[in-house]
Design goal:
alpha/beta; about 350 residues; eleven-stranded mixed β-sheet
């Protein structure tokens, strides 16, 4: 009865939200989902030259995490968006989609990772979808509920949000990367394997590989490092998985460190990649990292970064935030550098 009551409340909330949206948003949502199911050729990529004798184009000001909603066949999705200042109307920015962890909000995640400050400097947009507490009381993405279909529905709602933002803003749909922490990392991975052609890169920070769990019980087992990894589904001819960056703390008490190796190996197996020689990196007094690249025919498939001494926290994050460790190497910069290299190949 309690579950039915929560479902009823959630349904009424969705109905009120959709009624508050404009008709144009609803039409855009339906169109975006239809496009998601039928991937097409990305729009032409172009950037305005740094110098031009033509009249100066209109400049779009920054959007500082204002709350927005998208609506589509998968339901309503709350999100926040950051655009760097000084973006020209004719410009098409790369997009980094950031999925928060349990008990976090999109705004708290932005504060913890400081990704907006990096985006303002480097010139990319950041999208923060936010989980609804009616869907999960702890604000966790339900990445493990694949047997019931709840995970797939949430992934489709996130994709619809991404596509609508691409339609409404100066975003290049051919340069999109996913990143997430914990449950957000696991949901990002699910989205990447469901729609690999949509994304250039995926960064998983302290997450679980797709297919490791199909229920809450299975998720808890996988988090302890006792899950069994199922092979990833076969890909269509000519399609590759997005390049993967795995960031995992060696002292993580919630997500067993072995999970990082598991997801990297799954990617490598699907793409026929082999590990290269490990290397250790340390900058100043920050935690040292051990990195392993997986490549095939010179193409990077995955990079595993194990950070010594890091717990279940965003590496290099703001000290004032939960699930954030300022002593670790800067995960935000690592993720952007990784994504930027993949974007350069897509241009």
């Amino acid at each position: 009865m309690a579950r039915r009551a929560r479902s009823t409340i959630f349904s009424r909330s969705i109905q009120r939200t959709i009624k508050a949206l404009t008709r144009s948003a609803v039409r855009a949502g339906a169109k975006a989902v239809k496009q998601a199911l039928q991937p097409g050729k990305p729009a032409a990529r172009q950037r305005t030259p740094a110098k031009s004798t033509l009249a100066r184009p209109k400049v779009i000001t920054a959007v500082k995490l204002s709350t927005n909603f998208t609506a589509g066949l998968a339901g309503a999705q709350r999100y926040r968006l950051f655009l760097p200042p000084g973006v020209r109307k004719a410009e098409r920015l790369p997009l980094l989609v950031m999925l928060h962890g349990c008990t976090q909000t999109s705004e708290a995640f932005a504060t913890s990772t400081r990704m907006n400050q990096l985006a303002a400097t480097e010139g990319f947009a950041v999208l923060y979808p936010e989980q609804n507490q009616f869907a999960n009381l702890q604000s966790c993405w339900n990445w493990h509920q694949t047997r019931s279909g709840k995970a797939q529905t949430e992934a489709d709602a996130i994709l619809a949000t991404i596509l609508q933002v691409c339609q409404r803003q100066s975003i290049d749909p051919g340069r999109i990367a996913l990143a997430g922490l914990s449950a957000g990392a696991s949901m990002a991975a699910l989205l990447a394997v469901r729609h690999p052609a949509r994304f250039c890169a995926l960064a998983m920070h302290s997450g679980i590989a797709p297919g490791m769990a199909h229920s809450l019980t299975g998720a808890l087992k996988a988090m302890r490092g006792h899950g069994v990894a199922a092979p990833l589904s076969a890909l269509a001819t000519g399609t590759h998985l997005p390049a993967l960056l795995v960031i995992q703390g060696s002292a993580d008490p919630l997500v067993a460190p072995a999970n990082g190796l598991t997801v990297a190996q799954l990617w490598a197996t699907r793409e026929g990649a082999k590990p290269t020689r490990q290397r250790t990196v340390q900058r100043g007094a920050r935690h040292p990292s051990t990195l392993t690249d997986y490549k095939t025919n010179g193409r990077l498939v995955a990079t595993l970064c194990v950070i010594q001494g890091l717990g279940h926290a965003w590496s290099g994050g703001a000290a004032s935030q939960a699930y954030s460790d300022p002593k670790g190497p800067d995960a935000s910069r690592m993720i952007w550098a990784f994504a930027a290299r993949q974007f350069a190949k897509a241009v």
